[in-house]
Specification:
Layout: H1 5-44, H2 47-64, H3 67-84, H4 90-103, H5 107-123, H6 127-159, E1 163-166, E2 169-172, H7 178-183, E3 188-190
């Protein structure tokens, strides 16, 4: 019998739906378990245990796409790393927190945290975090670049054909205050 494309597509669709549903259920179960562990760790008052439980619950929340919960939990875990001096665990918490900042639209916070984390990783020769840290930082830098390009396009669209007159040379002007230009040496906007 030959290849039945329609049957193959239907089988793939059923498999994907089943697989996605089971993954979502597993993540929900993991989040509940991590939240329970966090309550126990808080009751005991053991900061490293609280950090691990907050990290686990935050990581799981991030995988579920719940940026608000992930932010709160991962920021708490990173705060404990800093307060207690859990230096070796800092990148384990900081990388998913940086990714969560990206998910939440906080690109500058992601770049700052991931840059600091990569510096720590390189200084301590933590090769197990080097690659994932570089990848996350590259993703954050790309997002920041894309935001800057989009902002530049919006500014150009608003300004239209405004030009800066510098005698016989003309340059595009982006949001330049005409009075400031005159104070800088008699330059003026033309257009």
């Amino acid at each position: 019998k030959g290849f039945d494309e329609q049957q193959s597509a239907e089988t793939l669709r059923k498999f994907s739906a089943t697989d996605a549903g089971s993954v979502l259920r597993e993540l929900a179960d993991a989040y509940r378990q991590q939240s329970s562990l966090l309550e126990i760790a808080e009751a005991v008052g053991h900061p490293p245990s609280v950090m691990f439980a907050a990290w686990g619950a935050g990581w799981t929340a991030l995988r579920q796409g719940d940026a608000a919960s992930a932010l709160a939990l991962l920021e708490r875990a990173l705060g404990i790393c800093r307060e207690v001096g859990l230096v070796l665990h800092f990148p384990m918490v900081a990388v998913p927190l940086g990714n969560t900042y990206l998910l939440a639209g906080r690109t500058d916070a992601a770049v700052a945290l991931l840059t600091q984390t990569l510096e720590r990783v390189l200084a301590a020769d933590m090769v197990n975090f080097d690659g994932v840290c570089r990848f996350s930082l590259a993703e954050a830098l790309l997002e920041r670049h894309q935001l800057a390009v989009e902002l530049g396009r919006q500014v150009f669209a608003e300004l239209g054909e405004v030009r800066l007159d510098l005698g016989d040379r003309r340059f595009p002007a982006i949001g330049i205050d005409p009075q400031r230009l005159e104070r800088l040496g008699g330059l003026r906007l033309v257009g």
